[in-house]
Amino acid sequence: MKWTSVLAIYSLLWVLAAFLVMPFGLRTPDEVKEHRVETGHADSAPVNFRPGRIAVRATILSAAMMFAFYLNYVYGWVDVQDLNFYGPPPVKSMGY
Question: Which of 5, 6, 47, 93 sits a CA distance of 20 to 30 A from 13?
């Protein structure tokens, strides 16, 4: 596998991981009993958003997913044929 492919797949996995870990640990003003919501902010906006912590968590999770993906690429545990859940396509007759 080329290094550019590894970088592209890792980048996609990092974005996926960031969206997966983003909601963990966030609290709304109602959950922390803080009723000071600034003008223009949504009532559901988190009061403790930490993008650095999300980036670290996403990096760790995406590294683990990339490691699993690369091992599957090398050893071929799950192949394209394994993902065909509907069985082989039906054979079409010529109608003669």
Answer: 47
What residues contact 36, with CB distance under 8 A and at least 6 apart?
29
DSSP letters, 1-21, are --HHHHHHHHHHHHHHHHHHH
Compute the distance between CA of residue 63 and CA of residue 4 in angstroms, rounded to an integer. 16
Distance CA 39, CA 43 (A): 10
Classify burial at 9, counting beta carbons within 10 Å of its beta carbon; exposed 0-12, middle 13-18, buried 19 or more: middle
User: Could you give the count of Cα atoms lying within 13 Å of 37 in the half-sphere of its Cβ?
Assistant: 15
With tokens 């870990």, the residue in question is: 21
pLDDT of residue 96: 60
Task: Read off the tokens for 11.
Answer: 């980048």
Contact of 48 with 34, CB cutoff 8 Å: no
